[in-house]
Amino acid sequence: MNRYPPGPRDFLLGFNLANRFRNHPLEFITEIGATYGDIAYLRMGPVRAYMLNHPQLIREMLVTKHKS
Asked: Buried b / exposed e across 14-31, counting CB within 10 Å, b at 16+?
């Protein structure tokens, strides 16, 4: 069983993803949301990130659970 939500995989430790994000950030984020849904996990170089693409999830993270 996979411990992470779905998301893009990059065989170069995420450096291709980081480059795409750096060059076209809005297009990259929109594509991730459309392809992987409300929660996506990705690795861009040494950075591991979760992307939230639903307003309720973003509100829960920033308002409800801001202390954790």
From this structure: beebbebbeeeeeebeee
Please identify every stretch of the chain with a pLDDT value under 70, giving residue numbers as ranges.
Answer: 1
Question: Residue 66: its pLDDT value, please?
Answer: 86
pTM of the model as a whole = 0.78
Q: What's the confidence (pLDDT) of residue 1? A: 62
Q: Can you tell me the distance from the alpha carbon of 38 to that of 52, in angstroms, rounded to the nearest whole number?
A: 6
Residue in the block written with tokens 């430790």: 13
Residue closest to 31 by CA, chosen among 44, 45, 20 = 20
Cα separations in angstroms, 43 against 15, 19, 48, 55, 60: 8, 12, 4, 22, 23
